[in-house]
Amino acid sequence: MKKLALLFAGLALFATTTTACKDDENTAPEVPLVGTWQPLTEVRTEVDTNGDGVSDQIVYSTCQQQGRWVFKENSSGTRTTFEESGLPVTCTQTSNRTFSYIYDKGAKTIEIKYQGTVVSDKGKITRLDADAMNLMIEDKTDPTVFKTVTYSFKRIPQ
């Protein structure tokens, strides 16, 4: 009888600790995509059907880091880019593109449709926390080559 009571006490303790862990996992705060993001780097990857691939990391200059990607609550946004040009070298805005987006939080997929374009960019948010985001865009125009561009961002507090 003592063994049976000890067994039930052990099972009750196990069930309590297991449930407590699950509750802790569910209470993690959700980090929103909405906000202003500063681009820091991009990684361009290409892999052909033979498995041969190459990746190039591009670290943005101070000028390029002045660019901003803004994701708004109403599923719209803007992407502003800057480049160095001229002599003497100056940092100038090269584009200001408006877009709409669809973000699936569960699957972490995103589709970005730039104003004036037919084909949208599709990809995944591979990292999203309070301070940083990685956005991977897949290029499926050539079925013989797997291409991605992964942008790394820092959140700009508002």
How would you sum up this structure in a few lines?
By secondary structure, the chain is of the alpha+beta class. It has one helix at 2-26, and strands spanning 35-48, 53-59, 68-71, 76-85, 90-104, 109-114, 121-128, 132-139, 145-156.
Q: What is the helix/strand order?
A: HEEEEEEEEE
Structural class: alpha+beta
Low-confidence stretches: 1-24
Number of strand elements: 9
How many DSSP H or I helices? 1
Task: Pick out its properties.
1 helix; alpha+beta; globular
Structure description:
Helices cover 16% and strands 53% of the residues. It is built from one helix and nine strands. Strands 1-3-4-5-6-7-8-9 form an eight-stranded antiparallel barrel. Strand 7 and strand 8 (132-139) form a beta hairpin. The longest helix is centred in the first third of the chain and has 25 residues, at 2-26. It is globular and about 45 Å long.
Draw up the topology in text:
Elements: H1 2-26, E1 35-48, E2 53-59, E3 68-71, E4 76-85, E5 90-104, E6 109-114, E7 121-128, E8 132-139, E9 145-156
Antiparallel strand pairs: 1-2, 1-3, 1-9, 3-4, 4-5, 5-6, 6-7, 7-8, 8-9
